[in-house]
Amino acid sequence: MDQAATIGDLVDTAIVAHAIEPAAGGPPDNSGHTHEGACLNCGTALVGSHCHACGQAAHVHRTLGAFFHDLAHGVFHFEGKIWRTLPQLVLHPGRMTREYVDGRRAAYVSPIALFLFCVFLLFSVVSHMGNTLGDIGSVSTNGKAISGIAANEQEIARLQQLRAALAAQGKPTAAIDGEITGRQSGLDALKNARGEAIRKAVLDQKSGARSDLPAIQHAIDAFRANPQLGLYKLQSNAYKYAWALIPISVPMVWLLFPFSRRFGLYDHTVFVTYSLCFMALLVVVLSIAGKLGLPIVGIAAVVLPPLHMYRQLKGAYGLSRASALWRTAAMLFFSLFALIVFAMFVLAEAGQ
Q1: Residue 231 placed within a domain
Q2: What is 45-62 written as a DSSP string?
Q3: How many angstroms separate the CA atoms of 139 and 180, rounded?
Q4: Is residue 288 part of a domain?
Q5: How far apart (Å, rounded) are the C-alpha atoms in residues 251 and 268?
Q6: Which of 123, 20, 11 is nearest to 74 (CA)?
Q7: Range of the domain at 192
């Protein structure tokens, strides 16, 4: 079921992104297409592969094979642009951002289409890779170790069913009672340790964080009271409000170039959107690598975000090394602040 849901999410992603990002163009395949002399949408006489008045393709697919061909292109090709955009996003983000802003954009997926694709992909992968809040630690009873809170809860339920069966048969249950008690004690310790770690790492109980906005303050108070529930709501609802990261982040990038006549809000919006796309894809890759137990996850998580920010800033805005370095340091601080604001916004909207 999880695999089917993942495939469904990916198909939905492709359909949304394909609807926003127009096709790259090119001569259509004759098989399975009609051959109109005028556009079926607006009636304009056709010249070339697309209507010059409304932009609709000159030939309409009317076969089942053509339909699935479009689906395959939507999922795997983005009409070919995705395979040109992703390498540039990873290796030459600054150059790609500058070219898109300057109008050389036919080869690239637009920022908003790529952003939607990356967000759907991110939360599809994360949501189907297990409960990140529960699978920590292990409990060992009678020489048998079980990892993760969820796994231990399932094991306790299994042992309780086995005990009930033994009791129904009139057999002794002392041994299994001891195993259940030991595993329950270990599970309680894991839960307590997890709750304490979350409280200290995410929001200390003694911190004086306050907000003049009632909704945000309510979210802060609720998170302090139950940080585990807060993180669950973040994980469950963040994808719905991922778009909010763009307007939250753009003013912070503007602060790096205050009152600049050369760079406007449009430049900053394209920069932020492509940067968020890379960060979302990085989380996807690191999540998969972490699930596989690869040792590079921690180092990559620390090194790659600032490195990418530096390269994108330097290339997109034509900065010197020193200028790009101090702006990268400022962006790291701004990014942390933006994530905090985003988390408070999501918790407030989720009604915690």
Answers
A1: no
A2: BP-SSB-TTT--BSS-B-
A3: 11
A4: no
A5: 8
A6: 11
A7: 138-202
Contacts of 158 (CB under 8 A, 6+ apart): none
> 2 phi and psi, to 5 degrees?
-65, -40
**Alpha-carbon gap, residue 7 to 13, rounded angstroms:** 10
Place of tokens 């585990």: 228
Q: Which residues contact 336 (CB under 8 A, 6 or more apart)?
A: none
Helix (H, G, I), strand (E, B) or coil at 212: coil
> Which amino acid, one-letter code, is at 27?
P
238 inside domain: no
Give the ranges where 203-320 is alpha helix by DSSP (H).
Answer: 214-225, 227-237, 245-254, 265-291, 297-317
pTM of the model: 0.61
How many domains are contained in the chain?
1
- Quick one: DSSP state of residue 138? E
Give Cα 150 distance to the centre of its chain.
Answer: 24
Rounded to whole angstroms, the Cα distance separating 341 from 234 reads 12
Q: Which residues contact 32 (CB under 8 A, 6 or more apart)?
A: 61, 62, 63, 65, 66, 69
Rg, Å, the chain Cα set? 26
Round to whole Å and give the CA distance between 9 and 106.
27
CB atoms within 10 A of CB 303: 11
157: CB partners within 8 A, 6+ apart = none
Q: How far is CA 145 from the centre of its chain?
A: 33
Residue 185 tokens read as: 């004690």
Q: Which of 231, 215, 211 is nearest to 223 (CA)?
A: 231
Q: How far apart are CA 112 and CA 307, in angstroms?
A: 23
Please report whether residue 159 resides in a domain.
yes
d(CA 119, CA 342): 15
pLDDT tens column, 182-232: 778 777 776 676 665 555 555 454 455 555 556 555 655 665 565 666 566
**In this predicted model, what pLDDT tens digit does every residue of 292-318 receive, in sequence order?**
877 787 888 889 999 999 999 999 999
CA distance 224 to 211: 14
Q: How many residues comprise the chain?
A: 352
What SS3 class is residue 167? helix
